[in-house]
Design brief:
The protein is mainly α and about 80 residues long. It is built from four helices and no strands. About 70% of the residues lie in helices and about 0% in strands. The mean pLDDT is about 95.
C-alpha cells in the first residue's frame, strides 16, 4: 500500500492524471493485491489529507478548493462540499 501511495503522490504532482499514469497505478494496485474497496479508501484518505493540509492555516482558498475537487474527481471520490 505504501508503494501505491508514493506513486499516487508522484503522478498527481502536476495536478493531472494521464491515461498512462492511470494505467501504471492500476498495474501497481494489481501487483500489490489491492482490491477496489481498498483503493477507494486509499483515495479518500489521500483527498482528506489534502483537505486537512489546505485547512491548516484556517482558510481554504478558491485555488485549493478547485484542486481538491479535481483530485477527488480524478480518483473517483465522492464530491466534496
Amino acid at each position: 500500500m505504501e508503494s501505491y501511495l508514493c506513486v499516487l503522490e508522484q503522478v498527481l504532482l502536476d495536478g493531472y492524471l494521464s491515461a498512462h499514469e492511470e494505467d501504471a497505478l492500476v498495474r501497481l494496485a494489481m501487483s500489490v493485491g489491492l482490491e477496489r474497496d481498498q483503493l477507494a479508501a486509499i483515495h479518500m484518505t489521500y483527498v482528506d489529507a489534502m483537505a486537512i493540509a489546505a485547512w491548516a492555516d484556517g482558510t481554504v482558498t478558491d485555488s485549493e478548493r478547485t484542486e481538491l475537487h479535481q483530485v477527488a474527481l480524478m480518483l473517483g471520490c465522492r464530491s466534496l462540499s
